[in-house]
Amino acid sequence: MALDKTTLKNGIKQLHTDMLTKDVDSTEEYAIRMSDLIEAFVKSGKVQTRITVTVGSATGSTTSQGNII
Are 61 and 51 in contact (CB under 8 A)? Predict the structure, then answer.
């Protein structure tokens, strides 16, 4: 399963740059934005599954790819 590490890295860099410009404690904003980046990273994964079905003496299979939601 491939994840979009480049987008996560760029998002973290931007978040840290933004936080350096804050004049007040922004711990809550940081936590929200970081958790949003992590959620997007995890959901960027693609999963491929192979399903085999047997009915009586007949067997069939398929491969499918989908997003993590």
Answer: yes
CB contact at 8 A, 50 and 63: yes
56: left (phi over 0), alpha (psi -120 to 50) or beta: left
Residues 6 or more apart whose CB falls under 8 angstroms from that of 52 comprise: 59, 60, 61
Place of tokens 């992590």: 38
Residue 26 has a CB neighbour count (10 Å cut-off) of 14
Tens digit of each residue's pLDDT (9 = 90 or more) over 2-59: 788 999 999 999 999 999 999 888 999 999 999 999 999 998 887 777 778 788 887 7
